Automatic annotation (TrEMBL):
UniProt cross-references to InterPro entries, sorted A to Z: AB_hydrolase_1 (IPR000073), AB_hydrolase_fold (IPR029058)
One of the Pfam families matching this protein, by short name: Abhydrolase_6
Record-annotated AB hydrolase-1 domain positions: 7-203
Identification of the protein by name: Alpha/beta hydrolase
MF GO annotations: hydrolase activity
SUPFAM superfamilies reported in the protein's UniProt record: alpha/beta-Hydrolases
Organism: Hymenobacter negativus
Keywords: Hydrolase
Record has Transferase as a keyword: no
Domain of life where this protein originates: Bacteria
Organism ancestry: Bacteria, Pseudomonadati, Bacteroidota, Cytophagia, Cytophagales
Amino acid sequence: MPPVFYLIPGLGADERVFQFLRLQGEAHTLRWLPPQKAPETLPHYAARLAAAIPPAQPCWLVGVSFGGVLALEVAQLRPLARVVLISSLVGPAELPWLGKLARITGLYHLVPPQLLPRLPRLAKWFFGVKTGLDYQLLRQILHDTDPDFTRWAIARLLQWPGRTAPVAIRIHGTDDRLLPAGIAHSQYVLPGGHLIIISQAVEISRILNQLAAEASPVFSVAPATPSAPAHP
């Protein structure tokens, strides 16, 4: 049976960040849903994302950046899923100092979500983009980002308590300026910044295909205990 990959993009991104992957199996992008009001909690939001994944289906959850956070939450509800985190984190201890300060003080409420789209050169530096094509793609993604979704996601991320992820496989860039702490906890460290999903798509494809080929049809790791989705 060919492997099945569910891909979760980063904050504000979409399936465009996965366009250079070449995976040997089924690949489905889980697109972002508009958050419900209240505001909606991450576990509840993850439950809505998980609805696209059959509960009895062995699969790979591949999450990029904020998508990795959702992959960890979705995995609580899909016991046959294996998680791969790309340029991501497993808890607040891995936030950069500015993120930890924002988490403690709540100052993130004062930062307009439209800031990075208005400062594309600053965004280029933060994301570690090197080539002109990658920069154009980054600008398009930032331009298309929904500020309301960004505001919700940043608040949920900075309030997230984290998840223990003993079986998560992690891939990180050597020059990741957004989440530099992830380098020390990753099995695969590749040259590049936060957008290695684009700049290192060939190598990441090789890693994912190799992991899937070496895994048994039904994963042998101890499954996560499903938890009931929290209400928003």
